[in-house]
Amino acid sequence: MTYVGTKRCIDIAEPKKARVTLKNGEKMPVLGFGTYKMSDKHVLEAALETAISNGYRLIDTASTYDNEDLIGDALKNVLAKLQINRNELFIVSKLSPKEHGRDKVKKAVTTSLKKLQLNYLDMFLIHWPGAGNLKPNHPQNKTLRKESWHELESCVRDGLVKSIGVSNYTFPHLENLYSYCSIEPSVNQVEFHIHYRQKDDIINFCSNRNLLLQAYGSFGGEEGANVLLNDPTAVQVAQDLKVTVPQLLLRWSLQKGFAVIPKSSKPERIQENSQLNFVIPPEKMKALDGITTRKKYDWNPDDIV
């Protein structure tokens, strides 16, 4: 038996069915469907239909993806076609860096709701710890983050959002957040894969506070996909287990305690990425953990104060 999170004991023998109970009692799917850079409405609708048909129940988007309106239209059609209720889905969006601050957050949330054609969001994340118009070392970043969080807390109280969280937060960002929050974050969505493991301070902090870590970039993103998917150790382990490398990378993240949100527009890949009912045995996990390549392929928030 394998689990998500050191303190949750959520069985992930069947990841498509697995749910993790968040701090507020909401149940979040362990497997989600990412929509970054999916901007063709026909491709997006077909992808969402394939994903939902194959058991995905978490849909991840963001203001900066510029596709919330397309997702809203697509979900309306797909849910009607598949006869699935909206409350069976867990829909996540995120605050754009340019939307940080007391006067912008609620408008950002209501705009996302309107585009997605929803009455509420299951989760809303602060996408980035820095404000879009400030340099990384500008002290106002910290002030705006605090304002944004308090506004998101108000959105929870107003029923616009059920759960709130962050993305790309480092250990100092999290420490600062916990010094003033009245509603604690439920998720920290971060880059995580066999070439970039996240620092122990973040993993330990989140584990001790029952803060779920959700992995993005499991396949390396645009910059790292070719390298990551052809990593010799990963290729060999995948062959030994008779699974694909993407399946292996997703299952590895799950067994490390991270939820996952793979993205693809190809029906066969979407289906394949949901078929994770295998277990990587300890000796194979050790081989993957022993990969010496250390490379971050996406944005780096370390310099943001």
Counted up, domains total: 1
Envelope shape = globular
DSSP strand count: 12
Main-sheet strand order equals 5-6-7-8-9-10-11-12
The percent range for helix content is 25-40%
CATH hierarchy class name: Alpha Beta
How many H/I helices?
11
SSE topology string = EEEEEHEHEHEHEHEHEHHHEHH
Q: In the CATH classification, which architecture applies?
A: Alpha-Beta Barrel
CATH homologous superfamily annotation: NADP-dependent oxidoreductase domain
Beta-strand portion reads: 15-25%
Please tell me how large the radius of gyration is: 18 Å
Low-confidence segments, given as residue ranges, are: 1-9
Biggest sheet details: 8 strands, parallel
Please tell me about this protein's structure.
This protein has 305 residues and is α/β, with parallel strands linked by helices. The chain has one domain (3-289): NADP-dependent oxidoreductase domain (TIM Barrel, Alpha-Beta Barrel). It contains eleven helices and twelve strands. It has helices at 41-53, 68-82, 105-116, 140-157, 171-178, 200-208, 221-229, 232-241, 245-255, 267-274, 282-289; strands spanning 3-4, 10-11, 19-21, 27-29, 32-34, 58-60, 90-95, 121-126, 161-167, 187-191, 212-216, 259-260. Strand 1 and strand 2 form a beta hairpin. It is globular.
